[in-house]
Give the backbone structure.
Amino acid sequence: MRRIFLASIVGVSCVLLVAQGAAVVSYVSASEQDRIITEYQRDAFILGGRVETLLETPGRVDPTLAVLVNKYAAAGNTQVIVVDSAGIGVLTSDPNELSLGTDYSNRPEIASALLGNVTSGERWSDTLQSNLVYVSVPIINGSSVYGAVRLSFLHGEIDMAVADKTAILWWVAGGSLLLAAVMSFVVSGLVTRPLRRVESQVNALALGDFSGRLPEDAGPNEIRSLAAAFNSMASKLDSLIRQQRAFASDASHQLRTPLTALLLRIERAREALLLDPVSADARLGDAEVEVERLTSIVEGLLAIARSEGGSHDVVPVDLAVLALDRVENWRALAEERGVTIAYEGPEHAVGSALSSAPEQILDNLVDNAIAHSPNGTAVLVRVREHKDDIELAVIDAGTGMTEDQCKRAFDRFWRADSTKDGSGLGLAIVKHLVELSGGSAALVPGRGGSGVVATVRLPRIQSS
């Protein structure tokens, strides 16, 4: 890209310089030709004034005028011819004086000058085999024309003068082009440096390095937007890869033990199948328990994976209505275990969360509370409205947990009592869904160390 940028700038500069240079050279050439012709016209009038007395007196000879004409012609590389009123040459810069006595009245420029006109122009000279530039002026005194002066020179004189003038212009143009190339090289480096940095980070990302980030406060707005988009993408990829690795690590670690236990129970059941059918049946029952535990673990892992990979768009949810509905759904199971369950809170409390997330959150919290509540105790589901959020609390009167256990309870596969059934994923799912919904979750010991208070806070939608 840098080469393309550099070539583009230099190419455009060349085109502009050539176009402008051609126009300037044309203007300078025309101006220089006009200037030279004007100077020759002035010199012709001066010479005409000097030879006027010679022409006013026919037959008079003044050797000093011939010397003057020859000096002027030699100094300016110019041919000088002076004619009388009849167009006959009387003075010439020709060293052989071949033009003296020649009739020039048939020459257009001489004929025009003898009529009192000042003429200039260019014509081809068969004698010199080159373009000839001429200037003719009349020699006038009052109303009488006594003759004419013609100065002629090769067009190469103008070309040399123009070349001297335009050489400076071309040197300036070349310097400008060189400066444009240097500036283009510097600017292209500044422009492409952020892009090269992006390319470097993309290559690092492709090789598995997700730690690199681009500065979002450097360069033009387009580069800043690109850097912000890249950083967002890199962060999401880093998070997804970490989650994937954690999922694989957790799954392999947690599934290894129940799978080994299941394999041992099946092998022992096979050995005891013929000799001790009762023992074999018991071992198969244990294997069934392990299968159920495996199913619970896999379902929990899949629930977390689905929440991580799904849409994270939040929707309005009436948490009060939902909490009351979940209480009614869990009431039958709670009564079977000798536990009463009740709801406390307003009739309506609208918050925002991921679609179906509040149901999963409440079901996991209520399930844990009922499972750890002794016979004859109660579970309370409470909803409270605050200024910016809505608080969902599930309170039980079970054996309780220490503060350290409450902090670890949201870790995947952690269980306070490893002898009890469960995958250790319920509260991990709760925390994950709450955070994706823009809220927070906490677990604290109950009053007097009895039971646990599980609290979830979700963003509140203000009523209009």
